[in-house]
Amino acid sequence: MAETLFAAAKSPDEAPFEKVEGDRSRGLLLLCDHASNALPARYGSLGLPASEFSRHIAYDIGVRELTLGLAQAFGVPALMTTYSRLLIDPNRGEDDPTLVMRLSDGSVVPGNATHDAAERQHRLGTYHRPYHEAVAAEIDAAIAEGHPPAILSIHSYTPVWRGVPRPWHAGILWDSDPRFALPLLDALRSDPDLVVGDNEPYDGALKNDCMYRHGTARGLAHALLEVRQDLIGDAAGIEAWTQRLVPLVAKVLQQAPDLNTIRHYGSRCD
């Protein structure tokens, strides 16, 4: 796998997110909501065997390294979580019933099974909100400097789900704002070797998720990129996809209109 079990760039006991500084004038902000499979020491392993932390239930395989590669290539800011989605999912709204998973892809999470309202609030205040506050602060700073950013969120997904193979090599998830998503779709589909999903393998319209909160609600162009995990499960795959994506994203940033203006399109969730 791309990461060692329980490994993260920074322990969540230090900070619930890590930030890569970059040039805001380039008009791009990278986000990685499921970058790490680490847990704060107080939670142990949430009662799970170590093998579960190499699975997608703990994190999105390959995405931290892919995000870092893109941030370096473009010289832009990036924000990434440092804790496992098993603790609390930063890509869910605070009222979402799947915010803290008691059961994930067939695995009972003992450390979550009996969590109460106080524990939920602790995880929100200590891990979930600081990440989103950091994202909002970075956006505020970019806007104040005259550079409203287009947001690209990096995720990955399993090649098979409930016994059904997923044919897409990658997908672009989006809601109602087409400015970033559709040009990215076109750019990826220009590669004849790729099968690219439009709102596959998931729908990009999810009320109060990360893109809704920081993209849709603020009128910023945004898109969520999903890459199949078997394609970025090792260093060679991550490097190959970094090299594949850089010219495609660069072309979109150069040619797509209105990427760095504030414009509200509403949401299919509302």
UniProtKB/TrEMBL annotation:
InterPro entries: N-FG_amidohydro, UCP029730
GO molecular function: hydrolase activity
Keywords for the protein's UniProt record, in alphabetical order: Hydrolase
SUPFAM superfamilies: Zn-dependent exopeptidases
Tagged with keyword Hydrolase: yes
Top-rank taxon, per record: Bacteria
Protein name as catalogued: Predicted N-formylglutamate amidohydrolase
Native organism: Stappia indica
Highest classification ranks of the organism: Bacteria, Pseudomonadati, Pseudomonadota, Alphaproteobacteria, Hyphomicrobiales
